[in-house]
Amino acid sequence: MKKSQKIRTVDDGSLYSLLHADHGDPFAILGMHQIGDHLAIRIFRPDAREVLIQDVKKPSLRFSAQRLHEDGFFEAVSPENTERFDYELHFTGHNGHTWRERDPYSFGQILGPVDLHLFAEGNHREIYKKLGAQVTEIGGVKGTTFAVWAPNARRVSVVGDFNRWDGRVNPMRKLLGSGVWEIFLPGIREGVHYKFEIKASHGGLLLKSDPYAFYGQHSSSTASLVFDLGRYRWDDEKWMEGRKKKQWQNEPVSIYEVHLGSWARVVEQGNRYLSYHEFADVLVDYVQSMGYTHIELMPVAEHPFDGSWGYQVAGYFAPTSRFGNPDDFRAFVDRCHQRGIGVILDWVPGHFPKDAHGLAEFDGTDLYEHADPRKGEHKDWGTLIFNYGRNEVRNFLIANALFWLDQYHIDGLRVDAVASMLYLDYSRKAGEWEPNCFGGRENLEAIDFLKRFNEICYDRFPGIMTIAEESTAWPGVSRPTYLGGLGFGFKWNMGWMHDFLQYMSREPIHRRFHQGDITFSLLYAFHEHFMLVLSHDEVVHGKGSLLGKMPGDWWQKFANLRMFYGWMYAHPGKKLLFQGGEFGQPAEWDHNRSLDWHLLQYPEHDGLRRLIQHLNYLYKTEPALYELDDTHEGFEWIDFHDADHSVVAFMRKARTGATLVFVVNATPVVREGYRVGAPGEGWYEEILNTDAQVYGGSNAGNMGGQHAEAVPWQGHSHSLNLRLPPLAIVGFKKHAAPNL
What we know:
single chain; alpha+beta; eight-stranded parallel β-barrel; 16 helices
């Protein structure tokens, strides 16, 4: 082993900055550098007592580095080599422990100019493959690249288990003009915990989780974890190929909304969560048996606070580790697809929390959020608002949406709180908001972002769906952008939900005065591609459960809810029901506990579940219930004038002309001989009766169906003489002849 020359080639100022983790360009100091006719190799490792340098291609060439500062700065001048060479560092720790590794500062720039250019203009669709932690191999050396956007930082370092969380050890290279910092750390593999230590321009130190991390800790632990997404092998080719041809506006869509943390718990094991693998068995089996077409998951992106239900996201690219690792979540999605079930995620681009480890003031400045609090803060929610006018922020969000569609085969994104994004004065008093450049209250930057998001998602992933939770009268939410719309596939019908819940909560004797509550939705039902929703928002914050909202005694509550569900499935629009609603959970939803599955032992609860099961089957097998959801051609009133008896009758139609007739009796009175107009002669098979005994009803009905009589009624040449069961909806399918 040869000795290197004991000289120091670094000036005092540069060394001082390096030792105090304040040097803006550590690659100019550390690593291999040409000094005259010699090569100097500089290393900073406070945990090392000695350092040896070995030529990778000529292992016999080894020489020691001199410790030039007690804090751990070493330097060696090669005794032989005058041309650059690959080398390995051999360390001896203060306790005698030895290890070896390649020098991170011997590797060149990682991100290329095209990547940086696309990111700067906001158009890098796969930036998640460049920023963050990427398990890779460079020049035959395995390790992980780290890259982060922090343009206003004085210094950024990767810290973690591997360097004792010491920000002096692995400062990163700043790529001038882009604000991106990067480094390749050889030997760093999956499972390593890490963060970015950022020295702000004002000198303060910040410890931040990786915005692009694929995996992270949850709750009070907030480190990011290195994870390799390149290993999983999907088995859902049939589903993915079939999805490309889907036009969901003309297909049955029945969604089961789920909060994974409370759908079920393992009480016998400390009330623990189920894992993604366990959900792939029990949840998927249940959803398939119930006949739903899709599962919608409340946000699964990593979030620190359980009580936010996932809507205060800290790790936008990481499925929460509460239930397993990213590949475990992929296995869950894979199983859903193998069983013919789509997966929709709640996505939250409207705001993010102020947690110190997250996106807030990421590099010491208002980077991801808008600097003006009139545009950058939701005071009601205690969260911050993204700066949609900044290219890199738009890139972060749109790439995140594409990431879930690409890497996790997600079938749809339901965008949370769209109304809060569209309006500058959302939940603000006069003087608390600033008009746009035209003097209006529309958030032009957010509108442009939403349009671009929809255009890009549908272009790159045909057959997916985007859904807007939008509660205002904003026009064209679900119309294409080339027609002036926002470009969403569907819009939640909050008006229908409000009016119908208000009607259903009234005592039947008073419903006669509120017939407009149940007819108004048909005035605008075809202005958008609507989704009828009974979501988690309707069963929290003191609102009570759906069953609890129903009036009357115990039997009437269930009868009302059965009627409501049947009415929902007969009404134009796709369907969504939150977990627990399908069996009539009496208690308000609590995110900290499991649903009351034991209630299924009781006939009224299990009967309600059977009804939902039947409604999903009926919905998927009768094109009249979904083919013409978005046009007047698919719906026709028979009569809505009989407010005195709280009865309405209407038809649903398919493209083939197949017709279904529905009659609702919203009172607890059996109505004998009630005549309803019918669209022509034939046999009308009773395909739905929410009062059937199998569902827990009184079994009043029409003996399986009726022949239409040649008695003109309500503008039709024929009519049906029906027995209307109490608090129920009945449905009939028209046949040309008796169903013998």
